[in-house]
Amino acid sequence: MAKKAVKQVLKPAAPKASKPAPKAAGIPTKEYADRRERALKALGASAAVVFSGEGAAPLLGKWRAHSHFEYLTGVSDELGAMLLLDPNAEDPKKRSILFLNPTDPEWEVWDGYRDQIGTALKTRYAIDSIMRKRYFGRTITAIARKRKHLACLHAPAMPDAPVTPDLALYRKLAERIVGVSIEDRAELLPALRSVKSAAEQALMQRAIDASAAGYDAALRAIRPGVDERDIALAVTRAFEDAGADGMGYNPIVGAGLNSTVLHYMNNRGPVADGDLVLIDAGASCMGYTADITRTYPAGGRFSKRQREVYDIVLESQLAAIAAVKPGAFMWQVDQAARKVIDKAGFADAFMHGIGHHLGMEVHDAEPDGALKPGMIVTIEPGIYLPDEKLGVRIEDDILVTAAGRQNLSKAVVKDPDEIERLMK
Q1: DSSP for 183-238, written as a single string
Q2: Which of 1, 97, 119, 191 has the most Cβ atoms closer than 10 angstroms to its Cβ?
Q3: Rounded to whole angstroms, how far apart are CA atoms 5 and 218?
Q4: Do domains 29-192 and 195-423 have the same CATH topology?
């Protein structure tokens, strides 16, 4: 897949019809098998179960498996499925076992027909052992008796929330099998997921390139008198025309006072002359998402005050991006951004963190420790002044490289002079 399948061309002239982008290559089947092997190796003497999640297909949007499960299997649409990892299985083909719901013709009429377990299904998922869930209880009980060590891979639940499905299962086993111990290994999969492979990076670049087309459309759509919804529709349509699967998260299009609301999602308000319009939106491509924010002047030119605040945020963002490198911690990156904003006297107007990991989820799995090559993080400082109805945030997606960093979303213009030229 070409990394620049969608080239951003911003002109004041009327836009031409978007040319459909070529179909993106997904994650190779072998990569899922390699991911499981790394997880098995890291587990050592412990066995573990990863759950896809329960629920039902929604009438709005799509049900999606837990990202840990999808990361290890490539399966995104199997309700109630489980992956059993047993590094010390006597039969190498049973070190990973995928458990699926039984077939049910009456149920499948509603939600889709299911494949029989056989060579084709095993080949598709690159996994030798696939069983129906009716055999899970017997299998996990036998493994727990042999191994005596069970590892929780799902992140711990908050005190008021139900316990995670793996911990709930292990507690039942510990009540029935003498000597079973439970250990917290919730850091294992975030550590693996946070370093993106070449295939993952290509999909994320594809999502970012599609997002660039959306921001191109936004520049042409923004003007006094339109509604935030008009801009949001222009952005999302351009994403899909550029080859995206859809949105990575609910988009934010906030004008005036709404630009100061961090997670504003109503996107139904008038855009007035003199407003700033803050857009936070990212396209998704085959399960991976972009996350970009830009702030534009509704009338095509920044006021003196708007330009003053914008320049501070941009300086802060550039300082933070420069701090991204292998071995650095996100708190150090945050500190670099905050130093600029604090010095300018806006410390209390920057109330969120500098960014987060990005990947299968917009707020992707957060690993412990320092940044490593292959990680992709967002850098998004902001200043929010409700009394002035003025909010500015600038966000880019940054790949950590061996030499430092690479801005994957640099095609989305953020230089204020260039923004004004393009909006003229």
Answers
A1: EE-TTHHHHHHHS--HHHHHHHHHHHHHHHHHHHHHHHH--TT-BHHHHHHHHHHH
A2: 97
A3: 20
A4: no
Long-range CB contacts for residues 80-84, cutoff 8 Å, separation at least 24? 80/52, 80/53, 80/54, 80/133, 81/51, 81/52, 81/133, 82/49, 82/50, 82/51, 82/52, 82/133, 82/136, 83/36, 83/49, 83/50, 83/52, 84/47, 84/48, 84/49, 84/136, 84/139, 84/140, 84/143
Contact 18, 213 (CB under 8 A): yes
DSSP-derived 3-state class of residue 23:
coil
What is the model's pLDDT at position 159?
94
For every residue of 63-106, DSSP letters joined together read ----HHHHHHH---S-TT-EEEE-TT-SSGGGSEEEEEPPP-HH
Residues 237-253 pLDDT 10s: 999 999 999 999 999 99
Which residues have CB under 8 Å from 145's CB, separation 6+?
177
- Whole-angstrom distance, CA of residue 12 vs CA of residue 234: 16
Residues of the chain with pLDDT under 70: 1-24
d(CA 139, CA 137): 5
> 280, 392 in Cβ contact below 8 A?
no
pLDDT of residue 9: 35
Tell me the two tokens of residue 334: 């945050």
Tell me the residue length of the chain. 424
According to the model, what pLDDT value does residue 1 have? Answer: 35
Contact 308, 287 (CB under 8 A): no
In tens, the pLDDT along 338-356 reads 999 999 999 999 999 999 9
Query: What's the one-letter identity of residue 405?
Result: R
**The CATH fold of domain 29-192:** Creatine Amidinohydrolase; Chain A, domain 1 (3.40.350)
292 sits in which H/E element: strand 292-297
pLDDT computed for residue 25 by the predictor = 72
Which pLDDT does position 55 carry in this prediction? Answer: 84
What is 195-423's CATH superfamily?
Creatinase/methionine aminopeptidase superfamily (3.90.230.10)
Residue 56 has a pLDDT of: 77
Domain spans in the chain, listed from the N-terminal domain onward: 29-192, 195-423
